[in-house]
Each structure stands twice: as structure tokens, then as C-alpha cells.
């Protein structure tokens, strides 16, 4: 189906929280029309939302162009969008082993960057007791993960995680690194990791990412409104 004739894909977000915005960057990159609905805290673990995502978290996605296909888990959703809509392979490799190496980075984002940085935020801002050992652990992990990316880029001498081509995996790292990192590690200076820093700057300069960062800012401001 031509992208120009697509109906908007529905994506469920939770204000500015990072995981859904990874998906939206991919939607923007591929030119797929989308609309979002922000699910409030009270609506996440109850019906009707848990019929969309039994895990009660965002994102969830409904694709009206494909019999209302309903998906959850941001990595699985991104895999779907790449399979179904990236027909020109703009954000993926079809060659071996690059296709599989891209998946390594995708899974590292899902299992490493997202959860560890999320825990840093939780122990810093939401856990009822101050637990310095937990804060220290996730702070160290956050820095280690930045170091993994920096050392890899340095060793490969490539601008992106897999060679010279930007892929969906690079883009998946943006919301946590660009927006969440300054909140959970306010004193961290990314210039300490020059390859990481240059990589991030290139990703952030993309128009899809600029569009999404502006929309996240709007969600952040909504959260600050009295009574919200
Ligand atoms: N592994 C899941 C994580 C989803 C997740 O943690 N979503 C957050 C927003 S970034 C959420 O819904 N938080 C609300 C909650 O945990 O109740 C994914 O990547 O989709």
C-alpha cells in the first residue's frame, strides 16, 4: 500500500515518557501518518487499555491499514513497522550479517539502555526511601552504557552503530539519551565520550527527531499544568 494512502496509525503514549517516542521517530522517518492518545496513570493497568497491552504500559499501536493489527512492546512494534513499511530499506540492512548486528543494538537498547536508565530515574525521583546504593548502581550502569556505545563507535570508526548507514536501532536510543539523560544524570557531560556525542548530534539533527523532540516538549509542558 502506498504511504500516501495510509490511514493514521494510532499510538498510545504516556505523556513525555520515552518508549512510545522511539516508535514515533520511526513513524516520522518512514512518513507514516500517526495520531497519539496519552493514557493517564490511572488508565494503564485497567480496561480498556489492558486489552491493547496486557502489560499495561505504553506504547501500544493499532494499525487500521492492516486489519487493526494491535501490538505492544516498543521493539516489537518497531520490528513490525520496519517489516511492513520500510520497503525501500531506508532504515535497515538486508545484507548479512549487518541485518543481525542491527538487531543486537536494538536488543541492547531494549534490555540495557531503557531499563537501567529507567531504574535510575525511579530510584532518584520516585522510590519512597533514598537508597544510595541503588542510585549508584544505576548511575554507573547508565555511564557504562554510554561508554559501550562510545567505545564501539571509536573501534569501528563508523558514524553509526552498524556502518555508515543510520538504522532504526540508532534512532531507538534517542529519547532516553537525549531527553531522559539530563533528568537522571544532570551533572553528566556527554563531551567526555566524544564519539558518542558526535553520534547523538547527528541523530538529533534529523528532521524526524527534531519534530519528535518538539512534540515531547509539548507533553512535558502539559504535565506541569496545575491540576494535571
Ligand atoms: N519494554 C516496554 C517498556 C514500556 C514502558 O515501561 N513504558 C512506560 C513509558 S516509557 C510506561 O508505560 N510506564 C507506566 C507504568 O509503568 O505504569 C516497551 O519498550 O514497550
TrEMBL record:
Positions of the GST N-terminal domain: 7-89
InterPro entries for this protein: Glutathione-S-Trfase_C-like, Glutathione-S-Trfase_C_sf, Glutathione_S-Trfase, Glutathione_S-Trfase_N, GST_C, Thioredoxin-like_sf
CDD domains: GST_N_Ure2p_like
Pfam families, per the entry: GST_C, GST_N_2
GST C-terminal domain ranges (all copies): 95-226
PROSITE patterns attached to this UniProt entry: GST_CTER, GST_NTER
Family recorded in the similarity comment: Belongs to the GST superfamily.
Name of the protein this chain belongs to: Glutathione-s-transferase theta, gst
Organism: Lipomyces tetrasporus
Amino acid at each position: 500500500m502506498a504511504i500516501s494512502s495510509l490511514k493514521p496509525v494510532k499510538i498510545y503514549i504516556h505523556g513525555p515518557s520515552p518508549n512510545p517516542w522511539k516508535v514515533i521517530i520511526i513513524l516520522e522517518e518512514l512518513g507514516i501518518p500517526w495520531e497519539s492518545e496519552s493514557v493517564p496513570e490511572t488508565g494503564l493497568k485497567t480496561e480498556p487499555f489492558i486489552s491493547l497491552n496486557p502489560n499495561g504500559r505504553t506504547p501500544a499501536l493499532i494499525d487500521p491499514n492492516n486489519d487493526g493489527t494491535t501490538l505492544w512492546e516498543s521493539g516489537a512494534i518497531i520490528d513490525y513497522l520496519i517489516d511492513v513499511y520500510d520497503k525501500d530499506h531506508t532504515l535497515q540492512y538486508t545484507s548479512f550479517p549487518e541485518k543481525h548486528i542491527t538487531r543486537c543494538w536494538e536488543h541492547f537498547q531494549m534490555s540495557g539502555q531503557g531499563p537501567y536508565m529507567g531504574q535510575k530515574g525511579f530510584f532518584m525521583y520516585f522510590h519512597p526511601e533514598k537508597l544510595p546504593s541503588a542510585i549508584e548502581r544505576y548511575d554507573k550502569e547508565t555511564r557504562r552504557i554510554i561508554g559501550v556505545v562510545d567505545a564501539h563507535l571509536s573501534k569501528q570508526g563508523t558514524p553509526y552503530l552498524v556502518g555508515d548507514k543510520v538504522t532504526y536501532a540508532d534512532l531507538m536510543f534517542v529519547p532516553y539519551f537525549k531527553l531522559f539523560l539530563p533528568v537522571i544524570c544532570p551533572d553528566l557531560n556527554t563531551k567526555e565520550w566524544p564519539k558518542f556525542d558526535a553520534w547523538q548530534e547527528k541523530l538529533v539533527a534529523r528532521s524526524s527527531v527534531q519534530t519528535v523532540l518538539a512534540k515531547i516538549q509539548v507533553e512535558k509542558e502539559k504535565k506541569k499544568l496545575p491540576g494535571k
